[in-house]
Design brief:
Layout: E1 2-10, H1 15-27, E2 33-37, E3 41-43, E4 54-63, H2 67-80, E5 95-101, E6 106-107, E7 112-113, H3 122-131, H4 143-149, E8 156-157
Antiparallel strand pairs: 1-4, 1-5, 2-4, 3-4, 3-8, 6-7
Length: 159
């Protein structure tokens, strides 16, 4: 079993409801055990400013799936929620990112673990820390140390 951390984000439609539904969907999958979810957080968009604010969260679960199988499953769920990949960092109905897979470092054409930029995004680090404040990243850095040195860009806890 591997512990996986998955980032969730949305800013189209009703993003708060979308994330709640996505968490419910993930929690109902037999491939994930002991799923826990962080609070929901509102954040400003990282990409083009002419888009609505985001709602973000992180979930943690145990799985026997291999990393690419987890990625495929997450992308299938994104499709169920109407995800369209047209603009990098653009608006989206649902974004599911595989942030961490155990303590592994993975470099494949379709998948990079830890997720690129993980340690620079407060909307990932804050909910990740909420789930596991003792987490040590694959490069040996403590997540709390990363959080202590990062700027918070108007991140607001919703629920």
């Amino acid at each position: 079993m591997a512990t996986v951390y998955i980032g969730l984000g949305a800013n189209l439609g009703n993003p708060e409801q979308t994330l709640k539904e996505a968490i419910f969907e993930l929690s109902g999958l037999s491939q994930f055990a002991r799923l826990r979810a962080s609070s929901l957080y509102a954040s400003k968009p990282m990409g083009p400013a002419e888009q609505p604010d985001y709602v973000n969260a992180v979930v943690c679960a145990e799985t026997e799936l291999e990393p690419l199988a987890v990625l495929d499953l997450l992308q299938a769920i994104e499709q169920q929620f109407g995800r369209q990949r047209s603009l990098r960092w653009g608006p989206r109905t649902l974004d599911l990112d595989l942030l961490l897979y155990g303590n592994e470092t993975i470099r494949l054409p379709r998948l990079t673990i830890p997720h690129p930029g993980l340690t620079e995004r407060d909307f990932v680090v804050v909910p990740l820390t909420e789930l596991n404040s003792e987490l040590v990243l694959p490069d040996g850095r403590k997540l709390l140390s990363v959080q202590a040195t990062m700027a918070h860009h108007d991140l607001q806890k919703i629920t």
